[in-house]
Amino acid sequence: MKYLMVIITSLFFTLNLRAQTEKVSKTRFVIGLSDPELLHAGVTFRIANASQLGLNVGAGPTLGGVWPAISLEHRLYVGKDNERVNQKTWFFRQGTTFFTSAESPQQFTLNLTVGKDLLFKNIKNGITIDAGLFYLPRDERSSTGRSFFLVPALRFEFYFAL
What we know:
Blueprint: H1 2-20, E1 27-35, E2 38-48, E3 51-61, E4 66-82, E5 87-99, E6 108-119, E7 126-137, E8 148-160
Antiparallel strand pairs: 1-2, 1-8, 2-3, 3-4, 4-5, 5-6, 6-7, 7-8
């Protein structure tokens, strides 16, 4: 009887502790400001502790208006796990942006950045900040004479999980 009481008590405390741990969702919704897309919204999915895929839609500025944009990204997470979420928070981001209204060769950019996920008190929400470069192909008739253009890339994203 004494052993049964110990087992029941242990089970009760184990279930109570498990109910208190907050699981971090693998799917996040994002809203942000960035260059090249400017305003964007999308969804990301954490495949593993070191890998995340994302899809965003947004709008990029031009001299004469706005270009709608679709972006795909992959994040390679590195470094130590954050003890609050048991996940890595530093990353290298590789991506491409497709401007639907642009003419070739300026329809696609390649984006390379490095950044960090900053957690809020509620660990399901936070901000991502990253910076780097994006590659924009140029028209052969460009006045610079170069066939490409490297531009600073900067991104601020608010993310949240449901």
